[in-house]
Amino acid sequence: MRKVLILGASGQIAQWVVKALAGDPDLRQTLLLRDPKKLTGREPANATLTIGSVLDRKLLKSAMAGQDIVYANLSGEDLDRQAQAVIAAMQAEGVRRLVFVLSLGIYDEVPGSFGAWNQALIGEELKPYRRAADAIEASGLDYTILRPAWLTDEDEVDYETTAKGQPFKGTVVSRRSVGDLIARIIANPALHAGGNLGVHKPGSDGDKPYFM
Question: Which of 6, 155, 181, 202 lies at 20 to 30 Å from 15 by C-alpha?
Answer without folding.
Answer: 202
